[in-house]
Amino acid sequence: MTDAVDLIDVDFLLTSEEIALRDRVRSFVTTAIRPNIADWYDKAMFPTQIIPEMAKLGLLGMHLNGYGCPGRSAVDYGLAALELEAGDSGLRTFVSVQGSLAMSAIHKHGSEEQKNEWLPGMADGTTIGCFGLTEPDSGSDPASMKTFARRDGDDWVITGHKRWIGLGSIAHVAIIWAQTSDGVRGFIVPTDTPGFEAKVIGQKLSMRASIQTELMLTDVRVSGRALLPNVKGLRGPFECLNEARYGIIWGVMGAARDSYQAALEYSQTRMPFDRPLAGFQLTQQKLVDMAVELNKGTLLALHLGRLKDAGRLAPHQISLGKLSNTREAITIAREARTILGGNGVTLDYSPLRHANNLESVRTYEGTDEVHTLVIGNHITGIPAFR
């Protein structure tokens, strides 16, 4: 089955260490996620019991150095994200929110005291973080956020409302971005602080094995030491978002691969008109189209990962990868479902679950429209956001 997936020998471009790490994560997905994901998705349940094993695999803050973090390469992180999302987007999202968003904010912008206080526990999974940027009326335009932090002596008092915040209800600490009299600033807010409330968003049609929440902050008082001291303005959250977007470029190829493999296996055993479904020309065209885009997308992810490890990855390149790979992954998942016929709308098979999840992935960390305009700005030199 490997040869039916990796048509261009992408593995030849990986080191033995990278392949070994990928295979460890793949084994974890096979044993801990695949047998249970349909039930978790059906019950809209995030499996907190697997967090310690994820930590033991070095998946939390995987690409960060020091402070108990694993310090792996960008390609290592990408390969892990691909394997996790082959299980389910919600499980890869947990790793992204914890490591690429919450931990990265502290690692990039925090003081030494803050890093030593928070990062070791977050790396070992005993402390869960969330990242409060998006608001009900400001998703793609975070500059219009209304959450405000005011100085009161040596303290800060934060009031506002965040929405679509992953892990908010199980988090021990929240990274909250707020307007101040000195521009947008980030704050480390323990979630047991009086005035902090997290409410789970229910009745979702997507990302059901994941947690999304609303955060309400009512006169939440934190000390001056809660302020992330080393960044001011939207550069702070955007640098973290680019870490998460990079992981998506890889992750969605995992969802696409799993969808393709499910359709291929089904087509070889389904026997309409006394022959395998895989033997029909129209089915083969679907499978070939899926395989071609899967291989192209994986190669793009690997190239961007090598650029990131070399310190050469630019924001427009992240946007290109996120836009292209997410778009193609959705197409693959939907096409795979057609090969499964009516059986494909059940949780016995993964493609429609992946397709539903990918609708969320397509929206968060920058919509298609936002990434199109980022690339357009780079090509033309003319910003077209307003």
TrEMBL record:
Entry-linked Gene3D superfamilies: Acyl-CoA dehydrogenase/oxidase, N-terminal domain, Butyryl-CoA Dehydrogenase, subunit A, domain 2, Butyryl-CoA Dehydrogenase, subunit A, domain 3
SUPFAM superfamilies documented for this protein: Acyl-CoA dehydrogenase C-terminal domain-like, Acyl-CoA dehydrogenase NM domain-like
Pathway annotation: Amino-acid metabolism; tryptophan metabolism; Amino-acid metabolism; lysine degradation
Matching Pfam families: Acyl-CoA_dh_1, Acyl-CoA_dh_M, Acyl-CoA_dh_N
Keyword Lipoprotein carried by entry: no
Keyword tags: FAD, Flavoprotein, Oxidoreductase, Transit peptide
Chain segments annotated as transmembrane: none
Listed name of the protein: glutaryl-CoA dehydrogenase (ETF)
Organism: Marisediminicola antarctica
Highest classification ranks of the organism: Bacteria, Bacillati, Actinomycetota, Actinomycetes, Micrococcales
